[in-house]
Design goal:
heterodimer; A: alpha/beta; Peroxisomal Thiolase, Chain A, domain 1; nine-stranded mixed β-sheet; two-stranded antiparallel sheet; 12 helices; 11 strands; B: mainly beta; six-stranded mixed β-sheet; four-stranded mixed β-sheet; 1 helix; 10 strands; 39% strand; binds zinc ion
């Protein structure tokens, strides 16, 4: 297996729960400038731009390029939802592989605090609740099924029943990620969490508690990628994309729930995840056992369980037992979301996790550093994944 | 998509006022094309389901292609109104003003007797459980808009 593309620079602005007195373009530029400095590249060398979330929470690719004085020959942008971090990085890799650009910067700048909460009338995406077929998280307004939490809570209730899962064990996800966040200066949640805090946390949409939910933040992250041959000559150790796979979609998928639960139109099935048979493992020539650290999309804490099961780390229906005993904490067998993740670092739509992967594979994660960390994985409940490697082959 | 003429025979469901004293208009997609059959059905007191002409299975949501056999031809039937709870969630607070008068409230994922699953609010009760039998009702909102909801049918479904 030979990796053709690598991350060579990262930069960010500290995550914020309060609105910063600064334009979106300025926030984006601070992250891009930091990533350029990290990589040793000059602004004029960037010839590819991928924007994750555009206006009005962020900036669209055209104004992003214009206002940041980027001159690109490959430019694109994804839908304004958090699920596309892996997709954006994969599009960068494919563009580089095909020579559409030599240095691509991915920019994830968005200011949630300037708008109403997700799911409320003031939120820019409110009209999406009336998509044909349902909202982006199964919102069904006439039924009162609203907020991104609604669909996940619906899936969680069924999951607890179907697999006879002990609800109390879910606490380990939020508690474990908070412990890691306390070692991460970028994390917005810096107060310790106790089991009592978790158990008395209000049920926002039962069975989900507030402490099962990610923390909205304003985010500005930039990640620069180039081909492996160019990566070797830059300032920092390259972090190679060893293999990847895209988001799954269609009638069998329920975006924020496990497959096979029978929520919405997805069929109730005896779901058997592919696990090590997933494309990302086969094409990378590795198995779940080889992964040193897993980073996943944790909009809500059950997503961690479902990702562990979908990608074969834990048996189906057993992830809540599997994570007991600190197994996914920093000194555990498979450290997960060691930055604190969306639950405690802040909901960066996967970009905080991407920076954490780079730190872990460069060996500069400080007090969170995992010993002998070579293979790190990004994966989501909805099926996309990237395996990162700090060696080219 | 081929659609047969609307047949509005079949179960007539109870119509009740939505207890939240709110308008429905901004919470639903306006009718267009073949979805008018669904809206005409609600106006006539029926929950209309799209049924694949090839494999005979009903589907929710309305779609131009059957998710089970990829067939594109469909007709419509009136649902019996019987169903069983697959999952449920409970909202402690209202996140839209339309629901302020009714919090806390419960939303169900129900498997209808005809097969498809559908989300709807549990009306007239606080207690939901997986496996519970429920019946479809049609709620009329203050602007005259109608939407399906559920009531407990008092036992296992
Ligand atoms: Zn069919």
């Amino acid at each position: 297996m030979s990796s053709s593309v690598a991350i060579v620079g990262i930069g960010c602005v500290p995550f914020a729960r309060k609105t910063l007195d600064e334009s979106v373009a300025s926030l984006a530029n601070r992250a891009v400038a930091a990533a350029l400095a990290d990589s040793g590249l000059k602004r004029r060398q960037i010839d590819g731009l991928l924007v994750h979330i555009g206006s009005p929470r962020g900036l669209d690719y055209d104004e992003m390029a214009t206002l940041l004085s980027l001159r690109t020959r490959f430019s694109s942008q994804t839908w304004s939802h958090g699920r596309f971090c892996g997709t954006v990085l994969q599009h960068a890799a494919m563009a580089l592989d095909h020579g559409l650009a030599d240095y691509v910067v991915c920019v994830a700048t968005f200011v949630n605090t300037r708008f109403g909460n997700h799911g409320t009338v003031g939120f820019p995406g409110f009209a999406e609740n009336l998509r044909e077929g349902g909202g982006p998280h199964a919102e069904t307004l006439h039924a009162g099924l609203i907020l991104p939490a609604g669909g996940t809570a619906m899936a969680l209730q069924r999951y607890l029943h179907k697999y006879n899962v002990d609800r109390a064990r879910l606490a380990a996800v939020a508690l474990g990620q908070r412990r890691s966040a306390l070692l991460n200066p970028l994390a917005v949640m810096q107060q310790p969490m106790t089991i009592a805090d978790y158990e008395t946390s209000p049920e926002i949409v039962a069975p989900l508690r507030r402490l099962d939910c990610s923390v909205p933040v304003d985010t500005s992250v930039a990640v620069i990628l180039t081909r492996a041959d160019r990566a070797k000559d830059l300032a920092r150790p390259p972090v190679y994309l060893r293999s990847y796979q895209g988001i799954a979609a269609g009638p069998d998928e329920f975006v924020f729930g496990q497959r096979g639960l029978g929520i919405n139109q997805s069929e109730e099935t005896d779901y058997r995840p592919l696990g090590a048979g997933e494309h990302v493992f086969r094409s990378g020539g590795v198995t779940p056992m080889d992964i040193d650290t897993l980073h996943c999309y944790d909009g809500f804490s059950p997503h961690v369980l479902w990702t562990l099961e979908r990608f074969g780390f834990a048996p189906i229906g057993e992830a809540a037992d599997w994570i007991m005993g600190g197994r996914i904490e920093l000194d555990g067998e498979l450290p997960v979301n060691t930055s604190g993740g969306h639950l405690s670092e802040g909901h960066s739509n996967g970009w905080g996790q991407t920076m954490e992967i780079v730190h872990q594979l460069r060996g500069d994660a400080g007090p969170r550093q995992i010993a002998d960390c070579r293979l790190a994985m990004w994966a989501t409940t909805f099926g996309d994944a990237i395996i990162y490697d700090n060696q080219p082959d | 998509m081929t659609t047969s003429p609307t047949d509005l025979s079949g179960a007539v469901l109870p119509v009740r006022p939505y207890p939240g004293q709110a308008a429905l208009a901004r919470l639903v997609i306006p009718p267009s094309g073949s979805t008018r059959t669904y809206h005409d059905g609600l106006a006539a007191g029926r929950l209309m389901l799209q049924r694949c002409s090839a494999c005979g299975r009903c589907r929710v949501p309305m779609a131009p292609v059957c998710p089970y056999c990829d067939g594109e031809a469909a007709d419509w039937i009136a649902a019996s109104g019987r169903g069983q709870v697959v999952s449920f969630v409970r909202y402690a607070r209202a996140h839209l003003p339309e629901f302020e008068a009714i919090v806390p409230y419960t939303v169900l994922c129900v498997q209808l007797a005809e097969g498809p699953r559908m989300f709807g609010r549990l009306a007239g009760s606080d207690t939901a459980w997986i496996g519970q039998g429920v019946a479809v009702i049609i709620e009329q909102w203050v602007d005259g808009g109608r939407a399906p909801a559920f009531v407990s049918s008092g036992g296992a479904g």
